[in-house]
Amino acid sequence: MISPAQIRMARAALGISVKALAERSAVADSTIHRFESNKGGMQTGTLDRIQAALEAEGVVFISADAQGGPGVRLKA
């Protein structure tokens, strides 16, 4: 499951706003704001739509491991 920080990082890497992500994922921008601010959870299906929209734009989500915390990168 991706974290609020990973969504923020992914948006920053793509240079897109919460509004743009909301439009691409069909999720309310208020829901994305709330989740990114750690002020509420998100249903798995909703989070899946956000993740799919970001991955369609070239984001790769990186899980935490012994080397460091979770993150993102862009496909080459």
What features would you describe in this structure?
With 76 residues, this protein is mostly helical. The chain contains 4 helices and 2 strands. A two-stranded antiparallel sheet has the order 1-2. A hairpin with an 8-residue loop joins β1 (59-62) and β2 (71-74). α2 (18-25) packs across α4 (44-56). The longest helix has 13 residues, at 44-56. The chain is globular and about 35 Å long.
| Helix and strand composition category | mainly alpha
Portion of residues within helices: 40-55%
- Which term fits the overall shape? globular
Tell me the quaternary state: single chain
**Mean pLDDT across residues:** 96
Ends: how far apart? 23 Å
Low-confidence stretches: none
> How large is the share of residues in beta strands?
5-15%
Q: Please write the string of helix (H) and strand (E) elements.
A: HHHHEE
As laid out across the biggest beta sheet, the strand order is: 1-2
Give the helix tally: 4
Cα gyration radius (Å)? 12 Å
Give the strand tally.
2
Largest sheet data: 2 strands, antiparallel
